[in-house]
Amino acid sequence: MMRRAIGHLLTDVSHLLRSLWGLALVALFAELGYAVMQMAALPLYLRSAFRMSDGRPLEAWIIGLIISTFLITETAFKVPFGVLSDRYGRKPFIVGGTLIAGLTPFVMRVVHSPYAFLPLRALDGVGAAALWPTVFASVAALSTDDRRVAAMSIFNMTYLIGVALGLPVYSLVYANVRHHSDVFLVVSAAFLTATVLGIALVPAVPRGKADDPDGVAEKPLSLKEAIRLAQTNRTILVMMVLSLIYTLGTTLLSGMLSLYAKEVIGLSEDRIGLIFLGPGLVVVLLSIPLGWLGGRWGRVKSVRFGMAVAAAAMWLIPHTRSLASLTAIAVPLVIGFLMALPAWMAMVTEAAPPGQQGVVVAAVTTAQGIGAMVAPAIGGRLYDWHPTWPFYASAMLLTLALAIAFTYFHEPNKGLR
After folding, report:
1. Domains in the chain, please, with CATH?
2. Does the pLDDT at position 141 exceed 60?
3. Handedness of CA 229, 232, 233, 235 (dihedral sign)
4. pLDDT interval class at 381 (50, 70, 90)
5. Contact yes or no for 313/398 (Cβ under 8 A)
6. Fewer beta carbons within 10 Å, N or C terminal of the chain?
7. Which candidate, 401, 161, 199, places its Cα nearest to that of 303?
8. Nearest CA among 356, 102, 344, 415 for reference residue 225
9. CB count in 10 Å sphere of residue 414
10. Stretch 82-96: mean pLDDT
11. What 3-state DSSP class applies to 416?
């Protein structure tokens, strides 16, 4: 039985990689750029390079506000770009989004006020809005129903590898650069590599061919119709609520984890990357098998498992005071994400009417963005009051999200309780 399961896994993955490997490379380099920027380069640089009027380091809530600016514009543009990509094709938005993100770090190196980062991060948010809904809609379009979770697991792997490498890459670069701001050059290089790969390797698949091979899809939705779809489809609406709460919980920590590691645990900036070495190894070795297993086990069961592990981890992190204990919590947390995230994205795309995956993905990720765009500033203020408070607030929100998942979703995921 085990040999047969491994055979099915290898068959599914090899089939999917033939059509998705170029897109996967673009997602990998783009997420690496976002991870280095969001998790370490931006918060640590702002904290050390700028001061309050009384000489104290820049307050964490201002850092959170700058991070939120990125997420606000990303949220505002996701649905419009989802509609446009359904209508005009995916590739221009993938290439354009990574190009924008590759150019702004050059300016960040030379600005002399933390508030100059606000418009730059807003522009980065526009690029992210063009990129990510388009990528996930492309994955759904280029994979069949029986292999969609396996396809999402491949992109879950690229996402988590990018996240796992974010802090180690930052630490490696920080230890070898002359000026702290030179870290932004690495961020730019990651995004511009994604741009070149997007031009060279991502297929330019028309919208009709990608999402509706039989030619029976409805006409693309307008923005107003996309919003109405979210309001009238109960399944999508509950997905949006769950995404809102869950993302609010996880994004409270955006930028705060690296500050916590430096200021509470006591890790120097050239050692902060050690936090993610263990989880990174798990990602490399187990991301595709666990994502595939999650699809076989069941979408909803996998989502519940991932949320339960995440909630438990957030309750425990405030009690860690060493690298070893933080790593011990992070490894099972990553395992939960590896099973839950591809299953969740498969549930979202399968809830879409034919030919409208881009709109539905954008609608659900917009709900995520509503929570994400305010969470970093709130998390920063909580951190200013006490470094453990963002983790406890996150734990409460993730526990609520888990309760919603148990209450409303069941297998198979064609409806609600």
Report:
1. 10-210+220-408 (1.20.1250.20)
2. yes
3. positive
4. very high
5. no
6. N
7. 401
8. 356
9. 10
10. 83
11. strand
The SS3 call for residue 181 is helix
Instruction: Supply the pLDDT for residue 43.
Output: 93
> Which token pair is 179?
């000026």
pLDDT band at residue 4 under the 50/70/90 scheme: low
Task: Compute CA 178 distance to the chain's CA centroid, rounded to the nearest angstrom.
Answer: 30
Contact 85, 93 (CB under 8 A): yes
Residue 214 has what pLDDT?
Answer: 35
312-339 core/surface letters (b: 16 or more CB in 10 A; e: else): bbbbbbbebeebeebbebbeebbbbbbb
Tokens 């399968």 found at: 350
Tell me the mean pLDDT in the region 162-180.
82
* Max Cα–Cα distance, the chain, nearest Å: 67
Question: Burial code of 87-124, b = ≥16 C-beta within 10 A, e = fewer?
Answer: eebbbebbbbbbbbbbbbbeebbeeeebeebeebbbbb
Of the candidates 291, 284, 288, the residue with the CA atom closest to the CA atom of residue 164: 284
Two tokens, residue 234: 């109960």
Q: What is the pLDDT of residues 206-225, one digit of tens each?
A: 554 444 433 333 344 445 66
Phi, psi of 267 (to 5 degrees): -80, 135
pTM, to two decimals: 0.75
Q: Which two tokens stand for residue 329?
A: 């919590």
Q: How crowded is residue 11: how many other Cβ atoms within 10 Å of its Cβ? A: 12
Tokens encoding 149: 């979770």
Going by C-alpha positions, the residue among 354, 374, 137, 166 that lies closest to residue 257 is 166
Rounded mean pLDDT of the chain? 79
- Of 119, 120, 117, the C-alpha closest to 49 is 117
| CA–CA separation, 5 and 9 (whole Å) | 6
